[in-house]
Design goal:
By secondary structure, the chain is mainly alpha-helical. The chain has 3 domains: 84 residues, no CATH class; 51 residues, Arc Repressor Mutant, subunit A; 181 residues, Tetracycline Repressor, domain 2 (Orthogonal Bundle). It is built from 16 helices and no strands. Helix 11 crosses helix 12. It is globular and about 60 Å long. The chain starts with a helix and ends with a helix. About 17% of the residues have low confidence.
Length: 326
Amino acid sequence: MNIIEQSFHELSASFRTLVSRLTAISCPRRQQLQFAGSMNTDSHGSGSKPLGRASSHSEGLDCGGAVTSLVKPMLMKGLGSTLCRSAKQEEKWQLREARLLDLTQSIIDESGFAHFNMDRLVKVSDVSKGTIYNHFSSKEDCLAAFCVRGMSQLRGLFQRALTFNGTPREIALAIHFAYRLHLQLNPTVCMALVTARTPSFAEKTSPERSQQMKTIDGELFSMAFKVIDDAIKAGELELREDLPEIVITFLNWSMSYGINMLANTGFDHSVSDYLEERNIALVGANVLMDGLGMTPLSKDWDYARTWQRIADEIFAEDILRINIQK
């Protein structure tokens, strides 16, 4: 096994560990504390090994410890400002920040990203400039907070997608559905995320906010990874040497993101309408998963019916919101 393949196996093992920890913890504040504490135990415990199929290829390597030794200090640092406020102060803080982010979206929707700045936010809000800068260190930090909120909403959609009663491939399709739905519900957030991922933007964002984005990214990827892992365990996807699980997960994620972004923002309305009539998100998901050999193949299964089941059983209220907005 070459070094690249070994690295993929180690990363896959680490993602399985993250999946199990995220699944087991529900309270957000306790989640951060227990997650950081468990990392400390794993990093210094005796004889711990990566989980899953990759363990045979990474005997003696503490990949989880290497990763968590970097993540734990950042998690604990991000907890600092939260833990020093009382529950009542924290509730007031969160409500005010949510209101400021609502105003941020209003400004962007009305005037565009180029015309958003902190002075305009101060002007339309009922709080002082100093208070706003207590929440956000810069315009970029404010937009990053806006993105974090949107990513948290996407995380909720992913979590609900995982509850769909179906085969692993159908659950993977539910993840694709969730991505599509998120863009329809939050088009401004999705566009902001494109900018937020650029280096020039990131360097003007507070370390805490940057870490929040990275943490949610990891959680989202871990949920998508779990679906692929379940398909392999169920014998519905054969793992190939040239396509490790982490690569297959990324292909699903990136294709779904690309199709939905381009279908909504990259073409004129006539092309977008044409693609929407043919449910390009479903077509793309089927082409990819058929190509990967993920069964049941689309020739043997009615995935259009699955798509409708996902809409009816998991996301009916969200779709109603979209219809009302139209």
